[in-house]
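Researcher: Last one for today. Full complex below.
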Amino acid sequence: MMKKLMAHRLFWPLVTLLLMLAVNASFNPGFWQLRWRDGHLYGSVIDILNRAAPLAIVSLGMTLVIATRGIDISVGAVVAISAAVAAWMIGGQLVMQDGVQVYASRFPMGLALACALGVALLAGLWNGLLVAGVGIQPIIATLILMVAGRGIAQLVTEGQIITVYYPPFFFIGGGFLFGLPFSLFIVGALWLALQQALSRTALGLFIQAIGVNPAAARMAGVRQRLITVCVYGFCGLAAGVAGLLLSSNVKSADGNNAGLLMELDAILAVTLGGTLLTGGRFSLAGSVIGALVIQTLTSTIYSIGVPPEVNLVVKAAVVFVVMLLQSPEFRRQAHALVFRAAPGAAA
Amino acid sequence: MDAAGTPVLELSGLSKRFAGVQALRDVALSLRAGEVHALMGQNGAGKSTLIKVLTGVYTADAGEMRLVGESIRPASPLEAQAIGLSTVYQEVNLCLNLSVAENIFAGRFPRHGLAGAWRIDWKKVHADAQALLARLNLQIDVTRLLGSYPVAVQQMVAIARALHGKSRVLILDEPTSSLDGDEVARLFALLRQLRSEGLAILFVTHFLDEVYEISDRITVLRNGERVGEYLTSELNAPALIAAMIGREFHASTATATADTVAREPLLQAHGLARRGAVEPLDIELRAGEVLGLAGLLGSGRTELARLLFGMDKADAGELRLRGQPLKLPNPTQAVRHGLAMCPEDRKAEGIVADLSLRENIALALQARLGVWRCISPQKQQALAERFIQQLGIKASDADMPIGQLSGGNQQKALLARWLATEPALLILDEPTRGIDVAAKQDIMDQIRALAREGLSVLFISSELDEVARLSDRVLVMRERRKAGELPGGSSEAAICALIAGAAA
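Model: Here's the assembly. Have a good evening.
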C-alpha cells in the first residue's frame, strides 16, 4: 500500500509541499488560521495561493512545451508584454459623468483584455513557428523573444511604469468571488479546461508521443509540426493570462520588471512537479504543486525574516535539497549509504 | 616499394566478444603493399568491429596484429594513426565550419617557438596543407571553409588528414556512400594513385560494381568469421554474394509460377526520384499481392520506401493512388490515404518507448482519425487486446511500456499499430531484422494472410530466402536504380544474379 503510494508520480512533489508548509507553520503559529472578514477569506494560505496563481498558469503552458521536448524562456517577457498592452489600453482617467466622478478606460476593457491575450498568443505562435517551422533549437528560438519581448513591452509603456486607474480591472488579480480570490478561479478554470482538452481529444497522446520520440510520432502520421506550434501558442497565451493577473494585482505595468525571471521559476515548477526536461510523460497537477512549492518557499523566506541580501542564497539551497530529495537516483544512494553504515555503527 | 607478395599488415586469430555476442571469431586478414583490398560482408558480419579493433577503438580479446612484421596493439585511434594505420570513417567527421587547412592540421598545428609553446604558424599551416593536397592532385583554396566544398572534396581532405609520412595502411569505411558517380570516379583515381605509391588500402563498401572496379583482392566476413580471401579477378559477383550470404546457389533459371490474374494497380509511381537517394524509377503495387524489394544495403530500397510514404519529398516523378494523382508532403497525408509503413530502424523511428503498448498500438489510428475524434482508453484497450491476441504479442498487459518488450514483440506491436488503421498498402522495411525465429515466422505468416485479404504489401528484406518465399513479384534495386523485376516463385539464385547485375 505504502509502496504503491510512494510510487505515485505526485508523491514526492506533495511531500515537498507539505514539508514546506510545515516549516512555514512552525515559524509562524498563525499560519493555518483563516479569517472571514467583509465576506472574504483571509490568511497566509490564501495569500500563498493567490500569489502563486500567475506562476501556476505560466507553468501549465510550460509543462506542455517541455512535454514536447522543448522549452520556452520567453514567458517572462510575454508576461510583461501582455501586462503593458492591457495597462496602456485601459489606462483610466477621472471624468465627470452626470455630475459624478468616474474612471473611464481608454478602450473598452473587454477589447483591452482581448488584445493583450491576442498579442501573447501571437508571441507564442511566433516561438512555435521558429521551433517547428524553421527548426531552431527551442532555447535559442525563444531566447529571441525573451530579449526582444522586454523591448516591446518597454516600447508600449514608453519606458515608464503605467499606472492603471480603472477599478473594474483590479478585480481580475485582486477581486474576490464567493469569498475566494478571483485568480484562483482563473487557475482552476484554465487547469480544468486544459485537462479536458488533453483527455477528451487525442492531444495528450500526441504531445507525449512527440516528446518521447518525434521521429516515430511523425512516422505514425502525427502532425508533429502543427501540434508543436499550437503548444507554444498556448504557452504564450498562458503567459498572457498571467500578465493580466500580475498587472491587475499591482494596478500597474512595468515593462522592465513584470515577470522578470519568471521563465526560470516556471521551468523549476515543472521540474519540481516531476515532468522531465527530456520530454514525454508530464503532469499538470505536478506543475501546479511545483508553483505552490516555490511560492511557499518565497513566503517562508519573507515571514521568517531572512535578510533580503541572502534570501536568494537560501532559496537556491532549498531548491537544491528539494531536487535531491526528488531524484530517485539520490534516494537510492542515500538509502544504500544509511543501510550499509548501520551494521558498521553497531559493531 | 615492398614486393607485392609481402603483407604490410597481417592479422591472425582475432576474436572479440561483446556481452554474449561473438562479434569476431578467429579472423585473419592480410594487406599487401600496393593493393586495394575490399572487405565485404552483410550487416552484422563484423566489418565495423574489425575496423574498430584495427584502429584501436576496441581491444581484441585474442589474436595478433603485425605491421611490417612487428607485433602491434594500438590502444587508441591516435596511436593507430601514429604507427601508420590511417582511417577515414563513413561519415566525414571533419568540421564544416573550419577552413580546409584547419581541418587537416587540427590538433597538431605547427607552432612557433620552443617546443611549440608559441602561437600557431599559419603560414606553414597553409603552405603544408596546399602541398599535401597537391600530392593528392587537389588544387583548392585551403583557407576557405570546408563546408563550401562538395562532399567528394571533403572526403579527400579527410584522406589528406589521415595520411602522413609514415602511413602504411589506409582504411576507408564506405567512402562512397554519399558520393555521386563523378565524385566516385574522382575518388577512385586518387586511390589508384595512392596504390601505385605503395600504400595498402582496405576498402569497405556495399557496392559490388565498385569492388570490381577498384579492388585487387577481397576478404569476405560472415557472422564474425572469415569466409575466405579471394583474388577479385577469380571471384565473380554471384559467387561473392553467395560467400556473403552463406548459401550456395545452383544456376537454375527462374521458374516463374506467376499468378496470371491481372490485379488492380493500387499505387503507381512514374519516374519517382530523389537526388542522391533514388534514380528515376517506375513501380506498381497491386492490391492483394506482396511485392518483394531486394537489393544490397545502399541500393536505394529504404530510400524508395521513404519516398512512397512521404517521409522524404521526391524531386521528380508522380504518384497515383487507384489512378488518382497523389501528393505526399508528409507521412500524415500518407496515413490519411491508407498507406502504412514499418520503418527499418524500429527503435529510432518506430516505437515510442516510454508509452504503453496500448498507446503505441492506437497511435497511428488516432493520427488517422485526427486530434478531435479521440479513441477512449477503453476502446484503446479493446483494440490492443484484439491485436495482442491476433498477433500473439507476449506482454504482461497492455499498459506495459513498449520499450520493455522484446524486439519481436515490438515489431508485432508496430504491425498491430498499422493494421489498426486498416491500410490499403503496407510497407515493411526489414520487418524481420533482429528478432527471433519464431517471431519471424509469425510475422511472415501474417503478411501472407493479409495479402490474401486484399492488402497490398511492399516487403523489403536483406534475407533473400524470405523475399523469394513471400513475394508474388520481386523488384530488385542496384545502385539506386531498378535493376529489374522477377515474377513470383523466382529462385534466390535468380534474385542474386540480378543484385550482382552488370558486375557478374
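Chain B has four domains: 1-84+167-176+199-235, 92-165, 264-338+424-504, 349-422. The radius of gyration of chain B is 26 Å.
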